[in-house]
Structure formats: C-alpha cells, structure tokens
Amino acid sequence: MSGLTSIKTTGDQIHIINQLLLPHTFEYIEINSTDDAHDAIKSMKIRGAPAIASLAALSVSQHLSRARQESPEPEFLKSPEALKSHVEPILRYLFTARPTAVNLGQATRRLSDTLQASIVAGKDARSIADDLIVESKKVADEDVGRNKEMSKWGGEWLIEQVKKKGGSGERLNVLTVCNTGSLATSGYGTALGLITYLHETGKLNKAYYTQSAPYHQGSRLTALELQTMKIPSVMICDTMVGSLFQHYDIHAVAVGADRIAKNGDTANKIGTYNAAVLAARHNIPFIVVAPITTVDLEVADGSGIPIEHRPRLEACITRGAIHPPSLNASGVKEQAAVMITPPDLEGIYNPSFDVTPAELITAIVTEKGVAVKAEGAKAFDLSQVV
Ligand code: MRU
Predict the structure, then answer these.
(1) Cα 102 vs. chain centroid, distance in angstroms?
(2) If you measure from the C-alpha of residue 165 to the centroid of ligand 1, how many angstroms do you get, rounded to a whole number?
(3) What pLDDT digit, counting tens, does each position of 123-141 carry?
(4) Measured by CB atoms within 10 angstroms of the end CB, which terminus of the chain is less buried, N or C?
C-alpha cells in the first residue's frame, strides 16, 4: 500500500513535500544544500524522527556528489584532512537542527564514523567522499524495510495479545498520536505502519488519531495519510482520549518515538504521556513502535532526554484554517494562520515532546522484534535489544 512521500530523490536532486502547507497545498521544495536541509528540518517543513535523519544524510550525499563532479575539484577533496575539516562542521551543524529526535544524531555520528574509518583505512579524499555518499544513501534507504518489519512484529503481537484476553484478534481499534506514517519516515511508517499492516491483513476495524495540537500533525498529516490509503479512521481532539476509552472498545494505543532511553522511557509528541496514563487506567496495551536508531543507550532514563521547546507563537495559532492559502508579496504560497490567543500573550508553555515512563509502556517494537518488561519489572533493559 503506497502512501504519501516525504522525500523524493532523482540522482543528486532532492525534493521534500512542504509539510507546513499540508493538507491543503501539495508543494515539493528543492533542497540544494546542507543549509537548505538544516532550515527545512528546523522550520518543520519536514519532521518526524526518521525523516529528518534521512534528509540530513541525503543532503550530505548531495553535497559530496556535486563536489565530486566539479571542475576544478574543490580544495577539500585534495586531502583526507581537508575533507575531514570540511565535513565534520557540516555534520555538527545538521545535528543542531532539532534536539530531541536521536535519529538525527545517530545519522550524523554514523557518517562521522564512516569518515574516520575510511581515513584510517588509508583512502584518498575522493574515495572517502564516495564512501560517505554510499553510507548517506543507506541511512535513508534502510528506513522503509525496517518499518515494514516492525509493523509486522507489532501487528502480529497485538493480535496475539487480544486473543490471549479472549478476543477474536479481528476488527481491532487502535489509537495513535501525532504522525508516524510515510510523511514522518522514508516510507510506510512506524506506529502508523503497524496500523497499515493491520489494515492490509484485514484485522483493522478503525484507526483513531488525536489532532496533536499545537502543530496538528494528527489532523493535518495523519488524517491525510489515512484518507489517501483509504483506511477507516476517526479523528479525536486531544482532550477526548479519556472519553474514547470510556465509550469505545480500543484494543491498543500505538505511538512512535523520538528518543527511547535505556530503561524504555520514551520521548514522543506532546500528549503521548496523557494517552499512556489513560491507557493504563483502562488496561489498554500501550505500544511504542520505533527503529533501533531511536534507542539511545547513552541515556539511562527519560530525565536525560533533551526536550525541544518550540517558539511561543506556534502555540497561539492554528494552521491550515483557511483554504485556499493566500499568496504573499513575493507570490509565494503561504499557509493561512489564525491567532487563537490575544496578541502578545506572554505566558506560554510549548514543549514539543513529553516523556512517557517505561512503567506505562506495555511493549517496545523495533525491527528486531517486540521487547516487554521482565515479570514484575517497571522498566525495560534495552541493552538486550540494541
Ligand atoms: O515534532 P515532530 O512532528 O517531528 O514530532 C514527531 C513525533 O513525535 C513522531 O511521533 C516521532 O518522530 C516518530 S515519527 C516515525
């Protein structure tokens, strides 16, 4: 089942769909430098932990591949030392674009390791650049396959759990938060991938999703993805999770992750923690679906995860409220935004993510399988998984 595509590449060309304009305007914008990639990630034209790592890596590949074709060749391709001095600051800069999603840091570290290994192997600068180009493309390409694997692991595990509780394992209702589909990854998705898998195998009744204020990744992006794939679904406001659990038979909550600590504490879109508390109250399995690259063994628990706070204004506006979008003075399409607060409001709390304690998480699903806590334990030991 094919969904929307967040990144399109042809040779050295990279285009991303501008997610700030979705769902009303489909506009692909060109990425022509690592600066463009940094800006697109920071401004959230592209978002979702795996997708931003893919774009960062692809922009490095584009930069080096274009340099390889330049004549005369740039100075930095004349020695391994010059190449290192050129590439390392780029990687560090890309890494600063957004702080919470660990996949971005994982991707830049992986490229830095490739650079170092090729230098140690005694290769010349051109060969090292070629190694980096290959490795960068792998970062993006590997994503789709592993998403399908984790979606299947998680989907089959959930069916089994429902059967163990005496259910049929058919016609499942699953709630998700934010957007974790093909727009947030290189394709298929993580938590939304699990939902897609259940739909493809005829086991899904309905997908439920929260609007995910203030950025509305749910109502703008997940809604569009589910509609595009014709998956039966119901949107709820973030405030309605408790009511949904009281009145409907929800079989699981499946969410993605931006960073998972060694003990399983999970940072994900703001509102995930609320859903987890309510799921525990209603005895509903709470499943985190994410690639191994989202697990950060260097962080012992959630208190060590940096939480991004977005600009205050972003919590004061709704996006995509007026259709069609207007043109600004330079003729560029702008998404209409409506203020929902008095102007110049001072006191605004706008963290982009929250941390769900491992205690509230039933299972963490990666491409390697399904991890659960030991009998009676309150935390996971993910060093066994990674
Ligand atoms: O701020 P965003 O939109 O980048 O946040 C995205 C999320 O929180 C996702 O759930 C997470 O990155 C996983 S995407 C597969």
Answers:
(1) 10
(2) 31
(3) 999 999 999 999 999 999 9
(4) N
CA of residue 101 to ligand 1 center, whole Å = 8
Binding pocket residue ranges, ligand 1, CB within 6 Å: 47-50, 101, 178, 180, 184-185, 190, 217, 256-258, 268-269, 352
Q: Which of 131, 258, 265, 296 is catalytic?
A: 258
Q: Looking at ligand 1, which residue's alpha carbon is closest to its atom 6?
A: 48
Report whether pLDDT(70) > 60: yes
Model confidence, pTM: 0.94
What mean pLDDT do residues 200-209 have? 98
C-alpha 78 – ligand 1 centre gap (Å): 39
- Kindly provide the ipTM of the predicted complex, given to two decimals: 0.98
User: How many angstroms from the chain centroid is the CA of residue 359?
Assistant: 23
What's the mean per-residue pLDDT of the chain?
94
- Complete domains list, the chain, with CATH: 7-143 (1.20.120.420), 145-308+350-372 (3.40.50.10470)
